[in-house]
Design goal:
The chain has 166 residues and is mainly alpha-helical. The chain has helices at 5-23, 44-63, 82-101, 103-122, 132-160. The chain starts with a helix and ends in a 6-residue tail after the last helix.
Amino acid sequence: MIRKMNDFVLSLIMIVLSLFLMFGEVTQGGSSLGQGGILSEADTYLKFIAFLLLVVSAIMFFRSFDFKRSGEKESFKFSMTILVALVALYLVIYTLVLPIVGFEISTFVLAFLLCFSFGVKEDDIALKDADFKVIGPILLRSLVFSILMVIALYLIFGKLLQIQLP
């Protein structure tokens, strides 16, 4: 008997996604220089993360069942809020704009929008009724976090690991 339907459904989706990432042709394998072995291939880390996702999803899958027969049962609940729709829209726009604008600008804008949206949601603020005294600290936090995140990503991936950013 399924005890937590949300965990059951989410774990099935994540298992399918992880199997797709592990066995699908998502990236082109093989090192272009022929050096570095398996660690230099483009899909090695993606497959490792997909394997970790598979393990965690399998744990969630088995924990969603009621093996003790306690009788507790949670039905499937999903509420499509404006925040969920906005995050999905942000990610779609980011994917479309990234090749045109570049990594730094598009990632900054995405991080800023996500940070601002979640900050407004966390502080439970209605934007139509709020003034700058209420929104200002959230804007400042979002701006600082976004700048620091883009700088950190650039330094780690662009400079330290010497990965070509889009």
